[in-house]
Write a structure and sequence with these properties.
The protein has 401 residues and is an alpha+beta fold. The protein is 23% helix and 50% strand. The protein has helices at residues 2-15, 17-21, 94-113, 130-155, 168-183, 205-215, and strands at 30-31, 34-35, 44-49, 54-62, 66-71, 74-79, 83-89, 123-125, 159-163, 192-202, 219-220, 226-242, 245-253, 256-265, 268-290, 298-323, 326-354, 357-367, 370-373, 384-387, 391-400.
Amino acid sequence: MKKEITSVVIIVLLIAPGGVMGKESKDQVLQSSAEIPVKFLFNQVVIELSGGVIVSGALVGIDSKTLIIKREGQDERIPSAEIKKVVIERQKEKNSYALSGMLFGTYLGNLVQYRARHQPTAFMAKDYSVLGLILWNAIIAGAGVGIGYLAGGLFEKDMVEFEFAGNLKNRQSQWEKMRRYILGIDFRQKRVHISVAGGQVMTTAKDYYEDLLETDGFYLGMGDMVSSLNLLRKLQLTVSISPRIEVGAAAYFLGEPSINGWKYTSPESYWVNFQLDTKGYYAIGIYKSLLPSSSRRISIVTGFGLGLMKTEFKLDTNYRWSKYPDYLEIPEEHTINKIFFCGVLFSELRFYLNNSLSMGLSADYIVSPTEKVPEFPRMNLPAKKIRLGNGSIGFNLGLHF
């Protein structure tokens, strides 16, 4: 358990700088009851007026009919009717790209390096050194920062242009587009959202059989080599149908760590193996609500889904009695291979580091049926109704397009 906590802390510490790198200043300018994000506030703008005159200044505000700039220490309001073209200069946000590279590099690096073998999905192994974990994460985080920073230099624009030509309707449409862009109203209104989640699984069936075997004096092998931290709990794809509502699909990886145990009391020996590999596929709906003081960066997400859950459960045992020259072996096995209709409830606290990247905390609970597992008297395992689903608390990373 200590190693699990250590590994989570190390990963979180590497991710934590995102909250600093993505944080905006508290300075705010209000125009028409909306805030201009700091990334645009006081940026230089060059304005071409209808008569061919060029003026420039620092961006201060905008409303439905006026652009406000600061020139020579004074605010100057320029009516939209007089503006032919606006060029907004901006700094390349290489830090945002570097942050994206660090987060996903760290996540994918741990998924590849520390995924336990012979286990469902991507449970994190325990057989690692803390120093090795720190060094590996430092390397992959650094590589991700470098790749992301270079990508930012290639893809980020130095300036954004808005031209106002044609009839009144076209000019009004272009002005509204610029206003929404400057005010950051479109900050999270991307259409397509892809996210991945990992989490500490609240195991049920595994805990039950593990406690029984330990109490009865079994030595547990695989259970000591794997944690309950699933690095790949969920893959999700959604599409926005309104600013607050998303619909889509999600795949959940709901298995629990496998365990095996054995006990030897001459001339008898006992062996037990437990496996539960479950996957759920759901159609989901999401509702997003903003925190009042979040400046459009933090939202609370609640959602539910309905779909199918495919379960592969196996509990097999082997009893042996051996006293030369006599030998007795009695294997027993119970399997559940079924598809169930079930549901999922989930919630997320999302923090948007930039327009295309989010991270945060997540929790889910699978509403699932129970199945009866028969008694294994030779192993002192009573009959039991086990719940095939579980819940988790963890983290999520999202990309928004």
